[in-house]
Amino acid sequence: xxxxxxxxxxxxxxxxxxxxxxxxxxxxxxxxxxxxxxxxxxxxxxxxxxxxxxxxxxxxxxxxxxxxxxxxxxxxxxxxxxxxxxxxxxxxxxxxxxxxxxxxxxxxxxxxxxxxxxxxxxxxxxxxxxxxxxxxxxxxxxxxxxxxxxxxxxxxxxxxxxxxxxxxxxxxxxxxxxxxxxxxxxxxxxxxxxxxxxxxxxxxxxxxxxxxxxxxxxxxxxxxxxxxxxxxxxxxxxxx
Length: 240
Hints:
Helices cover 33% and strands 22% of the residues. It contains six helices and eleven strands. It has helices at 22-29, 74-87, 97-105, 185-192, 195-198, 203-239, and strands at residues 8-12, 33-37, 56-59, 92-95, 110-111, 117-125, 137-144, 147-148, 155-159, 167-170, 174-177. A nine-stranded mixed β-sheet has the order 2-1-3-4-11-10-9-6-7, sandwiched between helices. Strands 5-8 form a two-stranded antiparallel ribbon. Helix 1 (22-29) runs parallel beside helix 6, helix 2 crosses helix 3 (97-105) and helix 4 (185-192) crosses helix 6. The two termini are 23 Å apart.
């Protein structure tokens, strides 16, 4: 795949069931073209073309660890791509594994298995901005075990006791969320039907996940739109 237009956003997938969902819809609504690529087995990024041809970079979730380059060499390629995009202010958004990849590529430490959070929960907003006023809570969909420190210079937007860095922003062009604001009901249903995802869940979690998501879907979607629209604004500014 060769990205040859500055209005294209490259979305990195790590597994087929991780989809851009709401994020992709927001980009499309804003008139921004995007395409997906899976480079987890790649040892270089020659197929992607020059970084300067990108208007934006998105990294989705996945079951692997952010530093598991022995089994997934493309993760090292992604880390290099993140650093190169950040160096020239190409907007970047990371979700779950993508959040961890951005943070570690830019100097944050990874803590494998430090805090398992799966299901609908709440994060505390600690910085006024995209997730609401500081001191409030925001419902989100969690699905992670690893925890990552924010990269140096980043502003942490939200936190939980076991995951101090639930979301961060670095300047106006780098965004990361440990949780899944992109997910919609179809996404959650597909995950429940995916053996690799369902294996992470207890029987109780499987039984209640969709109902829990439905109860908070409106607020989760609203927060996702705020985050993704801010990212789309950054992409549009880059492309103009």
